[in-house]
Design a protein that fits this description.
Mean pLDDT: 77
Radius of gyration: 33 Å
Distance between the termini: 71 Å
Strand content: 15-25%
Number of helices: 25
Shape: elongated
Strand order of the largest sheet: 14-27-26-25-15-23-24
Structural class: alpha+beta
Helix content: 40-55%
């Protein structure tokens, strides 16, 4: 848009004004320590136009404030500093939840007002009458009405919303009781009737119900959409080949048949087939296996995989929302929608509770009005019924136990994210565990049985490669105090191995198939000598054995799921005593297995750490991810093991069983309370104030039962 006059047009354009909020969000897949934080922030701080850069190491993200810059210069600056970066769309990660903070504010207002009104009521209870009593009532009204109007908004909005749709819920009788108690108290304060007011009862009711609402929301605040995380990690751009020219295009603009160029370090933007070039592919996104896989012409590649070594030309087979990564995100999103239909024990009981409360209140009012003809007395008793039967104890029964149990688990390094996780964990009878990165470290190590001479030559060859297996060989040689042999003319063959010259002989280290051998795995070949097999293993997590033993001790079955080969899975399963072990499972196979077991009547718990596990984590009856898991896996899981090791999974199962038993006890207490209190209120033996105290007392009993020690 141009200025209105030539003079204005000649003025310099205004620079973008920053409000201090981040303007760019980048994913940093390779950062892992404090030094990385310093390096990233320094590199970005040196770019002209960058106001600030803050790294979140846990989420592997950096938030940058640079309103005048595009994302490309920031990614280029990080690349020059040795850091890979990918653009994230903050809008895909979901808005910040502020409702818990608002509930805390409303709880504070209701509690403060309630205490002040109770102090004012002491004078009335002590015998004040006439004008003095009315003055205290009016002062109480001036405190109560604005406090209730503000603090009770969550209930009022919910009640009005469902009433407009011709339905009812638990907030309707709550709102009616609060409004009637306040209105009747106001009538008493204005001298329209001679009965004592109960402003403090209205405030007490609001206060305790808000506490219940806050407890219900605590488990929801930490949960974010794993589907959004998966979508945010998609490669946003691609290098399309138009003849010999490379054109940067949006990944979603690719169509089947397009040729794209994939450079070392690039993430695949689409599913396709390699036309030319060889590489080692990091397929951890889809298979969960840390060991790169060799790929060459004719091999299939999928979106989300990373080319580590070679330059590739790939023919696009599936792009946009048809890629494997996109389908995985859809699986997670669908499962999340299904899971959101889960309702807690208290919610299910409350479906019939709310209409019964309305009926009891109306019947009580009509019956007393018919018997006495006293409208105010009838209203008093009807309000008492609404207050005393308001489901405070029922509303607190589940969230109180949930809060106590999740708090104790958190102190053990176990984060419970889902509001229904404890209930679902208590129902588990089959535990499925991913292998790499969960039961094992995911880092290859060299096994025993390799001679010092062979290890020295292998370490010399490994110096010419950054492959994880080469690094494992180098670490093994260093640990044994063996110096690498002086290997010359090192040359790495992408996807195959390394070769060189040692003492005038050709030496090779790499895949057995590349060396012309039938054995699977990694081998060392020295010209003129017999090949040497190098046993590459993965170290078990120290707590893996205890986890399997603890789960079996409860009578639950354990299964091992892996995308690795049967040769790699069998030793792990045998060492842990797991008889049900499945290998070579793609992400869709894992999901299908969980769905099959669910269809057979099992309640499956999935324990996994990778993006390839997010589908299983989402469709399983309950799910757990280690703290070292990828962001999407942690977000898809119901429980995250922050610092307890794998043994935390067994602790979560045991705690969940005890917590659900406590929840049922609380619901029984709430039902027994109502069975006793409701008849008393309907008989006119309970005033609205004493009804509020009884209701509060039932909530206190439920809370005290929730905080009892778990034995």
């Amino acid at each position: 848009m141009s200025a209105a006059c030539p003079a204005c047009s000649a003025l310099p354009q205004a620079e973008p004004v920053s409000d201090g909020r981040p303007t760019h969000l980048l994913h940093l897949p390779d950062i892992h320590c404090g030094a990385c934080i310093t390096s990233v922030e320094s590199a970005l701080g040196a770019v002209p136009g960058v106001e600030s850069a803050r790294v979140n190491l846990t989420l592997k993200r950096v938030a940058v404030t640079a309103p005048a810059l595009a994302t490309a210069p920031l990614i280029a600056a990080l690349a020059a500093a040795g850091h890979r970066a990918e653009r994230l769309d903050p809008g895909r990660l979901g808005p910040e939840d502020t409702q818990s903070r608002e509930l805390l504010t409303r709880i504070g207002v209701a509690g403060f007002a309630m205490m002040n009104v109770m102090l004012l009521s002491i004078a009335v209870w002590s015998g004040a009458a006439g004008v003095t009593a009315q003055v205290f009532h009016l002062i109480s009204a001036s405190i109560t009405i604005p406090a209730v109007a503000f603090a009770g908004q969550p209930f009022f909005r919910s009640a009005l919303g469902v009433l407009r749709k011709g339905r009812t819920n638990m907030d309707v009788p709550i709102s009616i009781a609060i409004v009637l108690a306040t209105a009747a108290s106001m009538a008493s304060a204005l001298g329209l009737n001679h009965r004592a007011g109960w402003f403090d009862a209205a405030l007490a009711l609001t206060f305790f119900l808000l506490i219940g609402r806050f407890l219900e929301r605590r488990g929801r605040a930490a949960a974010r959409s794993a589907a959004a995380e998966l979508a945010a990690l998609e490669a946003p751009q691609a290098l399309r080949l138009d003849g010999e020219a490379e054109t940067v295009v949006a990944a979603e603009a690719l169509v089947p048949g397009d040729l794209i160029r994939v450079r070392p370090g690039d993430r695949l933007p689409a599913d396709g087939t390699i036309v030319s070039g060889r590489t080692d592919l990091d397929r951890a996104v889809l298979t969960g296996e840390s060991a790169p896989e060799a790929a060459g012409p004719g091999d299939q590649v999928t979106a989300g995989e990373t080319s580590l070594t070679g330059l590739l030309t790939v023919r696009v087979d599936r792009a946009g929302r048809d890629t494997t990564l996109a389908r995985m995100a859809e699986i997670v999103a669908t499962a999340e929608t299904q899971r959101s239909r889960y309702t807690g024990i208290a919610d299910r009981a409350a479906k019939l509770y709310a209409p019964v409360v309305h009926l009891l209140g109306a019947v009580t009012f009509a019956a007393w009005l018919a018997m006495t003809g006293d409208g105010w007395l009838s209203l008093d008793i009807a309000i008492s019924v609404l207050v005393i039967t308001c489901p405070c104890a029922l509303a607190l029964a589940v969230p109180a136990v949930s809060t106590v149990a999740t708090g104790r688990l958190f102190r053990q390094g176990i984060l419970v994210k889902s509001q229904t996780a404890l209930e679902r964990l208590s129902e588990i009878d089959l535990v499925a565990i991913d292998k790499t990165g969960t039961l094992t470290s995911g880092t290859p190590v060299l096994g025993a049985g390799v001679s010092d001479d062979a290890l020295a030559v292998a370490a010399g060859l490994a110096a010419g490669s950054s492959h994880p297996v080469s690094r494992a060989i180098a670490r093994a040689a260093e640990a044994r105090g063996i110096a690498p042999a002086p290997v010359e003319a090192l040359h790495e063959h992408s996807g195959d191995g390394v070769e060189g010259l040692w003492e005038g002989r050709t030496v090779r280290l790499g895949r057995a198939a590349w060396l012309g051998l039938d054995d699977a795995g990694t081998c060392l070949q020295i010209e003129g000598r017999a090949p040497v097999v190098l046993p590459i293993e993965e170290s078990l997590d120290p707590s893996a054995g205890a986890l399997v033993r603890d789960i079996r001790a409860t009578g639950r079955e354990v299964a091992l799921l892996s995308g690795d080969t049967a040769q790699a899975v069998a030793p792990v399963a045998e060492s842990l005593g797991i008889t049900r072990a499945l290998s070579r499972l793609r992400p869709a196979d894992k999901v299908a297995w969980v769905e099959h077991e669910t269809g057979a009547g099992h309640r499956v718990l999935m324990v996994g750490d990778g993006l390839n596990d997010t589908g299983c984590l989402a469709v399983a009856h309950a799910s757990i991810a280690p703290g070292s898991a990828l962001d999407a896996a942690r977000n898809a899981a119901d429980v995250v093991l922050l610092s307890s090791g794998l043994s935390g999974a067994a602790l979560a199962l045991a705690t969940a069983a005890r917590a659900v038993a406590r929840m049922r006890q609380n619901i029984g207490i709430a039902i027994a309370y109502n069975a006793l209190a409701v008849p008393l209120a309907m008989a006119g033996h309970v005033t609205p104030f004493w009804a509020a105290l009884a209701m509060s007392g039932s909530s206190l009993v439920v809370t005290l039962n929730a905080v009892r020690r778990y034995t």
